[in-house]
Specification:
Elements: E1 17-21, E2 24-27, E3 32-35, H1 38-41, H2 50-62, H3 74-86, E4 95-99, H4 102-119, E5 127-131, H5 140-145, H6 149-152, E6 164-165, H7 185-197, E7 202-207, H8 224-234, E8 238-242, E9 266-269, E10 281-285, H9 287-294, H10 310-325, H11 328-347, E11 353-359, E12 362-367, H12 383-393, E13 396-397, E14 399-400, E15 412-416, H13 424-442
Parallel strand pairs: 3-13, 5-6, 5-7, 7-8, 8-9
Antiparallel strand pairs: 1-2, 2-3, 4-10, 9-10, 11-12, 12-15, 14-15
Length: 445
């Protein structure tokens, strides 16, 4: 640890990582760790890929920076065109606003969703409905849309008064129901909130297609997003798909929302878009959204200094090209199926493994004290980080959930988000180490 760095947890000791290669990272002492979290869902093509490093070096020698609000550059144009080829066809000809990360991308989505309605003569449509136990970023607007109460609490007086609905969490249904008798109340709750708030006040609905670190890869039921899309259309509100973690092939399809064959109005993405080789985020607007602005004021009211800089965009373009050339989206699907099957085979008999879920290489495991009743461990036991720390000692990086999945306060869970280039022997190591870590942490409790 460095005495001059302000860490997220100032009391917690940190290992200094000095090198990465493929699916591994190495510390100062030369210890090797399998990076099964891909640097929090960022490292999708692996560490130290020469083709990407060469592309970045070439761009740095050519043009490292230009101010995107004044002039254009080739990498930005090429990356926007590449993303247009990736988005669902129903979005039409898309346009992309670039930034430096996921929070900025969602902040831009919030402002541009409002501008879309403002341009159409509906200035009161300003609120965005979010979900509890969600996370969209640490800026004030993004945190206002988020439902991670543990991170909202201190800053509550600063946040915008945006409504939230419960998550589609079938393992722990908020209404204590099961499908199909539940009537999909988790989606119908959006309709209720819109009517309660007044549709004339709602600009959009934002959701992580597969829920991220707040709940570790919770996958909504198959009917959920079609119902959400229908409600959004009914009340003239935009559907924003937060693909910061689930996008760029992580779930085995290009976008997490593709599993439901639903067309969003705005896609936000970051993390894997540049594979960890640069800081990059993107807000992708469907044609109906950007064209409304283009036909109105012609000025999207959002700008950032480093948004669309040539160096970051060159890195993003190189990563997407590498993914395409090596068919890594399909590989994420295939290796994800293998990892999920191996996890079930190795862990289902353990009394503490309540749920194994996810899609592709975006997998979550929920840990419980009582498997039958789904009873969580006491919060003060901090089981999540106990397991995480033991796995680390055994050479494996896993990602402990940030908050409890039970009322966003209690419960333990962790995620696996390895690079798409992972191989069979790596899967075996992940599974065996997780089992060993669970047994070490929880046997005798």
């Amino acid at each position: 640890m460095n005495e001059h760095v302000l860490y997220a947890d100032v009391a917690r000791q940190r290992t200094t990582i000095v090198r990465g290669e493929g699916v591994y990272v190495y510390d100062e002492q030369g210890n090797r760790y399998l990076d099964a979290i891909g640097g929090v869902g960022v490292v999708n093509v692996g560490h130290g890929v020469k083709e990407i490093v060469d592309a970045i070096a070439s761009q740095a020698l050519t043009l490292a920076f230009s101010y995107a609000s004044l002039v254009d550059n080739k990498p930005r144009q090429s990356l926007a065109a590449k993303l247009n080829s990736w988005v669902p066809r129903g979005m039409g000809q898309s346009k992309t606003l670039f930034c430096s990360g996921g929070a900025e991308a969602n902040e831009a989505a919030l402002k541009l969703a409002y501008q879309y309605h403002w341009e159409r003569g509906h200035p009161t449509k300003r609120k965005v409905v979010g979900r509890w136990q969600s996370y969209h970023g640490n800026t004030t607007g993004a945190l206002s849309m988020s439902g991670r109460t543990a991170w909202r609490r201190m800053h509550d007086s600063l946040l915008l008064e945006f409504p939230h609905i419960p998550p589609p969490y079938c393992y722990r249904c908020p209404w204590g129901l099961s499908r199909p008798q539940c009537g999909l109340l988790c989606a119908e709750e959006l309709r209720r909130v819109i009517c309660q708030e007044g549709a004339e006040n709602i600009a959009g609905f934002i959701a992580e297609p597969i829920i991220g670190t707040s709940m570790s890869a919770v996958v909504p039921p198959v009917e959920y997003y079609p119902a959400i899309r229908k409600i959004c259309d009914e009340f003239d509100i935009l559907f924003i798909a937060d693909e910061v973690m689930s996008g760029i092939g992580r779930t085995g399809l290009k976008w997490g929302i593709d599993h439901w064959r639903v067309i969003p109005d705005i896609i936000t993405t970051a993390k894997g878009i540049a594979g960890g080789y640069a800081s990059l985020g993107a807000t992708i607007l469907a044609e109906k959204v950007w064209r409304t602005i283009a036909d109105g004021t012609q000025k999207p009211m959002h700008s950032t200094t480093f948004g669309g800089n040539p160096l970051s965009c060159a890195a993003g373009l190189a990563v997407l090209q590498y993914i395409e050339e090596h068919d890594l989206v399909l590989r994420a699907a295939e290796m994800g199926d293998k990892l999920s099957a191996k996890l079930h085979e190795a862990l289902d008999d353990l009394p503490w493994v309540g749920d194994i879920r996810g899609r592709g290489l975006f997998i979550g495991i929920e840990i419980v004290a009582d498997k039958k009743n789904k009873t969580p461990f006491p919060k003060e036991w901090d089981v999540t980080h106990r397991v995480e720390d033991i796995a680390f000692q055994n050479g494996l990086l896993i990602l402990g959930g940030v908050s409890g999945p039970v009322d966003d306060a209690v419960g333990d869970h962790f995620e696996l988000l390895p690079p798409y280039t992972i191989e069979d022997q790596h899967l075996d190591f992940i599974v065996s180490t997780i089992r060993q870590s669970l047994e070490t942490a929880l046997s005798g409790i």
